[in-house]
Structure formats: structure tokens, C-alpha cells
């Protein structure tokens, strides 16, 4: 006598049931049917065609598929926001070069036409001799020589702020906006610490625009002249910049 045939129920283990996959109906259209994800699903399908696979192995395979799918979906989202491009599109096919610029920075605080104006005065209640908290906005001339009448090559635009309670120590944030020759319209950006009474102060170049895109380097400042009465100063700058 033949034993009665039994039809598997949902309680019976079937490796194809979780995703409702059938070996005779491969995925042709799927909302996440990218090539890599399709390969992962086919790989999972191939593993599940082995009905002798143990439950732990199937669980690990399913976990792998879910993790890999999440990774792919995150990757797709990132590629819509940003992607790699050819360096040549931004003019980076040229060899990077090092340039040296020397000019004089004129900080004119007094007189009828100041180029450096205090926009935030120091707090008097702090009783400090360093003008801690002072902020000056600047539009200082950059000249080829130390005399103000020397050839103008650009402007230093930005601000400096007194950032120390124990010494004259400035936070410098400014753009050297050039107006001379092929550098006309290009800028070099400085952001750094300036201990005014040090003989040489070094500040980093953090970037630039125009011919100084992707620029990096440093600037050295040396006081050429300072008037204690008016607060006016002339500072020699030597800037070393890596750029394309």
C-alpha cells in the first residue's frame, strides 16, 4: 500500500518561500534591479536551490544578501549627490608648481581715510592691555614696495581680531585679492595666528580662487614699520603657494 502524499504547509521549511522565488521565474524586472544587486539575488537564488542546505547556512546567506543590498542602496544614494570626475575638467592636468609672492601690507588705522576700522571694540570690564575681543575689518592696500605710493598689486580684505589676554596675538582671516597682471581677479586666502611682536610670524594658506584653486602653502609676515601713536603699520609679506 502506497503512503499518502503530503503537501508541504507554510510551517514546513522551504528555502524559496521567504522571497517567493521560483527557479522557473527569474527576476527580469525589480525595483532594485541594478547589476550588482541582481547578481546578489541570483547568488541567493542559486544557494537556495540546494534543498539540503541547513537552516543556519540559509540564515547567514539571507543576512549577507540584506547587508549587501543595503550597502548598494546607500551607494546609489551617494552617487546621486556626488561623484568622481576627471581631474582634467578642472585644469589639473598641468603639473603643480610653487610660486613666491612678496608685497607690503598697509594697515591704516588713523587719518582721514583709514583702511582698517574697529567694528567690535574690546570689553573694558576685562581690564586687559591686549585689547582682547577687538575686531577690525580691513581693506588694506598691497604694494610692491614699502611706500604707500608704490605700485598697487592688490588688497587684503577680511578681518583681524585680538585673541589673547596675555599678549598681542591676532587671529587673521583675509583674502589677498590681486589686481595686477595675470593674477588679476585671483585670490589667496590666509587664516592663522599672528603674534605681532614676534620677528617672523607664519600663517597658513588655506586655499584660493582663480589661478589659486586648490592652493596650499604658508605666509611669513615681518613688521617693516609701526607707529605706536596712530597704530598704523606696514608689514612685509612673503607668501609661498603650491598651485596649478
UniProtKB/TrEMBL annotation:
Signal peptide: none annotated. It is found in: Secreted, Extracellular space, Apoplast. It comes from Phaseolus coccineus. Dirigent proteins impart stereoselectivity on the phenoxy radical-coupling reaction, yielding optically active lignans from two molecules of coniferyl alcohol in the biosynthesis of lignans, flavonolignans, and alkaloids and thus plays a central role in plant secondary metabolism. Keywords: Apoplast, Secreted. PANTHER family: NUCLEOPORIN-RELATED. It holds the Pfam family Dirigent. GO terms for biological process: phenylpropanoid biosynthetic process. Belongs to the plant dirigent protein family. Its main location: secreted. This is Dirigent protein. GO terms for cellular component: apoplast. Homodimer.
Amino acid at each position: 500500500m502506497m503512503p499518502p502524499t503530503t503537501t508541504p504547509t507554510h510551517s514546513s521549511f522551504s528555502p524559496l518561500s521567504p522571497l517567493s522565488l521560483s527557479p522557473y521565474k527569474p527576476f527580469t524586472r525589480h525595483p532594485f534591479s541594478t547589476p550588482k544587486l541582481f547578481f546578489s539575488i541570483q547568488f541567493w537564488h542559486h544557494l537556495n536551490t540546494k534543498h539540503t542546505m541547513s537552516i543556519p547556512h540559509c540564515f547567514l546567506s539571507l543576512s549577507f544578501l540584506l547587508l549587501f543590498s543595503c550597502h548598494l542602496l546607500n551607494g546609489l544614494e551617494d552617487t546621486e549627490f556626488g561623484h568622481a570626475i576627471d581631474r582634467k575638467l578642472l585644469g589639473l592636468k598641468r603639473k603643480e608648481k610653487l610660486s613666491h609672492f612678496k608685497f607690503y601690507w598697509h594697515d591704516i588705522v588713523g587719518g582721514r581715510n583709514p583702511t582698517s576700522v574697529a567694528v567690535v571694540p574690546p570689553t573694558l570690564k576685562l581690564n586687559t592691555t591686549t585689547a582682547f575681543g577687538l575686531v577690525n575689518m580691513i581693506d588694506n592696500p598691497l604694494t610692491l614696495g614699502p611706500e604707500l605710493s608704490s605700485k598697487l598689486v592688490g588688497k587684503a580684505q577680511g578681518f583681524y581680531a585680538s585673541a589673547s589676554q596675555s599678549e598681542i596675538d591676532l587671529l587673521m582671516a583675509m583674502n589677498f585679492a590681486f589686481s595686477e597682471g595675470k593674477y588679476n581677479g585671483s585670490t589667496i586666502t590666509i587664516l592663522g595666528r599672528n603674534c605681532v611682536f614676534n620677528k617672523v610670524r607664519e600663517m597658513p594658506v588655506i586655499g584660493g580662487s582663480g589661478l589659486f584653486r586648490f592652493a596650499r602653502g604658508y605666509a611669513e609676515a615681518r613688521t617693516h614699520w609701526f607707529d605706536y601713536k596712530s597704530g598704523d603699520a606696514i608689514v612685509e609679506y612673503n607668501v609661498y603657494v603650491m598651485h596649478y
